[in-house]
User: What shape does this take?
Amino acid sequence: MTWFSRPHRDDALIACAGLLGGLVLWAVGLHTQGGRPLSGAWVLVPLLLMAGLELLRRTAPQTALVAGTCVLIADQCTLGSLATVVMFTDIVYAAVLYGSPAAARRIPVTTGLITVGATIGFYAWFHTPDALLIGVMTGVISLAPATTGALVRNHREAAESAWLRAEQTALLAELDRGQAVLAERARMARELHDMVANHLSAIAIHSTAALSLDDPATTKQALSVIRENSVDGLAEMRRLIGLLRDTSGREEPAAAPTLAGLEALLAQARANGAASGLGFTLDDRRPDGTPLPAPVELAAYRIVQESLTNALKHAAPGTVEVAVTRADELLTVCVISPYDQRPGPRAPGSGAGLVGMRERVELLDGTFAAGPGTAPDDTGIWLVRAQLPAEERKLLP
Assistant: This one.
């Protein structure tokens, strides 16, 4: 702050009140001391100067304190005014409250030393117990306001710190809530995609075959597959919607699929892909009696399910190979599909399948890769490979 900063409104009111009080005391002839060399109206000079310094109590508190100390010393040469002394105590208080942190620490210590020094010095000078009153008065006009200012400042800083902590806590809670909502939305999107995309892809493929082939037997078979997938997809949709809307907790959630259902999953894929010339094989090399953590089983099942769905949409006629192995505390899921440069997929896709598989693997701290490759017979393949931690301790944060 500079000398030319506009004083605060409260500081101007305090200065006016102090000046007015001092004028009233002078008018009625009430002074704090007598027998001084400067009598009469001289008492108004320190009063006016101290009132002017009150305007600087907030904008330049340390300057006001130094100048106020000089004015108070000069006031001792006059008859003295109680208003001048009271305004000085307010300047000491403001210097601690509004001054720099270093000044706020230094002023109470300095005024305490001055109080002790004045008490000892005047007692040694006058050798009477009455001299102790001078030390008491020195403490009242210097140490007491400085200590009060320090207490108020500490209280304000503690309140500001608590407010900042509360604000930061609220901000972190809002960020956590937003992240939780996004994570839950992503999880719901993955589950919905994996549960329904397989059935809808089969419906799209077989409806295209039924519309393009003028063969009653083929059309009947396609419609049968369409009905089966539509009924299964509708049932899964209803189950998922029921879980989302049920907030009473009375309904038990449906059991999560496990790798034990891979045979049924491939049987359904064989029925859906027969018209497209696709065959499906399963090579499950997991040792018997070795359970997997539930999140790992669900992720592996969904990866196989989504890979089969993509094969129904994009794979060339041939055999889709699914391999599941477990070694070195890792569960490896590998799906190999025939691949060629087709003009377009059998059914439309959104591209969310690969994203969902990658997210599932990353959530379990595994590795995921998907892309084209070359088979031993120089034909094109599409390879999906995921490695997941097979031990419970690997999943702990």
